Amino acid sequence: MAFPLRDIAERFGLTLQGDGDGLIAGVCSLQPGMPGRLSFLADPKQAGFLEQTYAGAVVLAPTMAERCPVPALIADNPQLAYARVAALFLPPHPPPGVHPSAFVDPDASVDPGATVGPHVVVEAGASVAAGTLLAAGCVLETDSHVGPDCRIGANAVLGREVVIGARVRVGPGAIIGGRGFGLARDHDGWVEIPQLGGVRLEDDVEVGAGCTIDRGTIGDTLLERGVKLDDQVHIAHNCRIGALTVIAGCTGIAGSTEVGARCMIGGGVGIGDHLRIVDDVVLTGATQVPSDITEPGVYSSTLKAMPAGDWRRRLALIRKLDRLEQRLRALEKPDNDKGDRA
Amino acid sequence: MAFPLRDIAERFGLTLQGDGDGLIAGVCSLQPGMPGRLSFLADPKQAGFLEQTYAGAVVLAPTMAERCPVPALIADNPQLAYARVAALFLPPHPPPGVHPSAFVDPDASVDPGATVGPHVVVEAGASVAAGTLLAAGCVLETDSHVGPDCRIGANAVLGREVVIGARVRVGPGAIIGGRGFGLARDHDGWVEIPQLGGVRLEDDVEVGAGCTIDRGTIGDTLLERGVKLDDQVHIAHNCRIGALTVIAGCTGIAGSTEVGARCMIGGGVGIGDHLRIVDDVVLTGATQVPSDITEPGVYSSTLKAMPAGDWRRRLALIRKLDRLEQRLRALEKPDNDKGDRA
Amino acid sequence: MAFPLRDIAERFGLTLQGDGDGLIAGVCSLQPGMPGRLSFLADPKQAGFLEQTYAGAVVLAPTMAERCPVPALIADNPQLAYARVAALFLPPHPPPGVHPSAFVDPDASVDPGATVGPHVVVEAGASVAAGTLLAAGCVLETDSHVGPDCRIGANAVLGREVVIGARVRVGPGAIIGGRGFGLARDHDGWVEIPQLGGVRLEDDVEVGAGCTIDRGTIGDTLLERGVKLDDQVHIAHNCRIGALTVIAGCTGIAGSTEVGARCMIGGGVGIGDHLRIVDDVVLTGATQVPSDITEPGVYSSTLKAMPAGDWRRRLALIRKLDRLEQRLRALEKPDNDKGDRA
């Protein structure tokens, strides 16, 4: 798999600078770079590496073109252009067809243009559209539906009545459609509240490895168009995540919470239940959100590690902060105090 | 699947108000509601929705009956009554039998009343009781035992010598009986401390999707009767979780810790190792517990997101809280100070 | 499986004290202990249990030997010696061979000395060395390579081009080689940045149940020799974890971060992206690391639960800590203030 740089420029509508005959056979980092491979420069802090790179070619912004010692592809958004070009080097999709070790229920519907890997299970009533790949060992339970050009990772599980749009990627080991955690108290224990809704993932959603997305109690848990989840994210029952929102790894969102569109949520964040987060909210890593966020903006409650002895003293003071405030208040009333003393 | 409201009332011992002839074919939310479907009113804050609901019938408390414009089922605990009625609408259990694609070791014992799904693995010495469903792709390793009327989710794993009681639900992708994280330091690395214990889940336990519960080092890790875990909870080796305790998603409990009965543990909580938490403790979401809790009650260390610039200033002050305290102390000794200056 | 204590002493080079004829058939805790079983005493706080133990024998330090009422194996590092001896009682490895229900691609290479369990998938180009066990349902995708004497847990997934050294243990349900979370912004959504690197686990690495380790963007994500991960740890793309570093459960490390050698990282820790943590750093549980750590030592930002009402008041004060500091500053300038007032 190697492409002349000129062909790449044409195919992706990029401006070629320098020799277009060289073959590009893969990608490389800018430093040190690798002959015959393509790199990119998006972060101005890396501009210093450009002049010594051994890359076969570099995707970069017009302002950087002059400094590039090797052939270049010029793009207004070099990272985006690189993302598109680099996809040339992804391993090819396996050919369509159902692996003989897979089990597809006779009452399921798998398009002949779909690829069903070894030991996959497709239960009754499920459907799989053309261009979709079901990787080894994944399970589509009863009445789940997967749209076209999706990729369901190895050993992932789509529960009953999970409905997935087009071009959705579900990571290996992700579990979509587990029971929502609804319980009613009985005199001698807990009774499960039946979770009768489903999960809907709209077009272009990505769900990372090991994520869990629970089915709704009555209606559906919903991830709107273009939502992207990193690994080990948990979305509880009845949540609705707005279009294009991105959520980094290990974040958990509790039940019935609605997150707006175009939010950027860091890793390890915790968001409470029954909350509303408006559009265009950014949360830094490990931030805790126990109440609504009603205005767009960047929010945080991220702590910062310090030497443990120092932290222990700060923590002791945090724990008696009310006493500190009382001492401050006492000082603020010197006249009264003097009066008292007099 | 539709039931006259009158039959539902009789079957669950609820008081019928209004017309009992209407058929109920499923559930709906109170707002807007849906004809022919059942809703419930448990949260008084939702009482306003009652008067405009389109639901076919509503389960509610006696005090609300008068305000209900549609037929009602009256119950002292409407949420509990709803939970029981709604279970009518869960999809039926698949019929008993072993799917031809499953592998059941000749030295395993599967009750003829159990259902073994596609690509399930039941290894030698394992046993499965009547009424239990093993969903597609789950694995029961050597000498694991599953009691009656359980449901083991798709692609879940029960390791060697995991023992599960009656009516236990294990979510898809949950891993019970992984190696406990015990290591001994050698001069040139780490040596695994063999984890020779098992895991025991007593009756009516629920384990959510993607949870991990590690086997004990010598004895068993134990979840007592009626413990309920949400998704992605981690219970380390040698822990013991008391009866009826409920743990929300993404919480982790470190090794050899004992949690009491009837605790309510929020999501994203972290509990350290070798601790004791007494009965009837409530922990709010994301709370950190590095030491014993010896009295029942509600505990917290939950932070709260604020605009990032504001938070950055607070964090800087937290980090010099000892300096603040010194300044406060200096102010509290004005006479000394004046003496010093004199 | 039972061994005379004398044989155990000889085999592991330990000093025998007392009768060596007794058979040891397993392990037990020190309190109460169990006849015919072996315990150990490593923590001096447990010395009180020694004198009443019912254990058949105890592994302990020379200084404790005198107080031992039962036969003893004397070792400078009793925990390490116990770890080695206890491995005698682990269930035997299943015999080599490929289970008939497994699917091994004709273009894969499985050593005849490897054990391939039921419903395992080994795709084209993958290789498995001698002495390695692939537990039920695990998946080795195209061109993944597993070295000798490894154990890959049930339903674990090794993605394309994951390369694993010798004596590596991958827990059940762990996902190695998921797509790294790289995205480029397009005018109308997100475009995946292809993740073309792999994951390398060097010799003696352990990965716990349910962990996720993402493939690199261009180069490989790397866990060096002897790194040990507990359950549900997340290692993002392009990370490099130094030799012998140990990471407890539920910790997440964001993309392109480098952690040094011999670090001890607690559970529930969050480490940001593109950071450098030097060798020999210890992080207490739930610590948050949003910036580089450049000196070895113990670091913390762990909070501590307190009664919820008390905490609420502390949190309110944290949130107005800048106001507190202003009030303090105002008090520190009494002369100016008096001047202003005059």
UniProtKB/TrEMBL annotation, chains A, B, C:
Keyword set, alphabetical order: Acyltransferase, Lipid A biosynthesis, Lipid biosynthesis, Lipid metabolism, Repeat, Transferase
The protein's Enzyme Commission number: 2.3.1.191
Domain UDP-3-O-[3-hydroxymyristoyl] glucosamine N-acyltransferase non-repeat region: 24-88
A Pfam family that the UniProt record links to this protein: Hexapep
Pathway named in the protein's UniProt entry: Bacterial outer membrane biogenesis; LPS lipid A biosynthesis
Residues annotated as catalytic: 237
Enzyme class: transferase
Family listed: Belongs to the transferase hexapeptide repeat family. LpxD subfamily.
Function: Catalyzes the N-acylation of UDP-3-O-acylglucosamine using 3-hydroxyacyl-ACP as the acyl donor. Is involved in the biosynthesis of lipid A, a phosphorylated glycolipid that anchors the lipopolysaccharide to the outer membrane of the cell.
Protein name: UDP-3-O-acylglucosamine N-acyltransferase
Organism of this sequence: Spectribacter hydrogenoxidans
